[in-house]
Write a structure and sequence with these properties.
mainly alpha, rod-shaped, Ubiquitin-like_Pup, proteasome binding, Prokaryotic ubiquitin-like protein Pup, protein tag activity
């Protein structure tokens, strides 16, 4: 009598699916890590841009104060009725 080997085939199919599933999970994990790295790089670039913008504003204020500090300060003083 020939042996029925369907259980062996099912086991092989299950192993194959498990390997495919594992590969898909690993691919997804790698893709997710890549996206997180890109987001981190983007955030770092945005922070660097913000720091450069702040430095430019502070440099502008510093140069204005060097030229005429009294006029700069008086521009913030409210006059009667303002």
């Amino acid at each position: 009598m020939p042996e029925n080997n369907t259980s062996g085939q099912s086991f092989q199919s299950t192993q194959s699916l498990s390997a495919e599933s594992l590969g898909a999970v690993q691919s997804f994990g790698a893709a997710q890590e890549s996206v997180q790295n890109e987001q981190h790089i983007t955030t770092d670039m945005q922070l660097e841009d913000a720091a450069l913008d702040l430095d430019a504003v502070l440099d502008d204020i510093e140069s204005t104060l060097e030229e005429n500090a009294e006029e700069y300060v008086n521009s913030f003083v409210q006059k009667g009725g303002e």
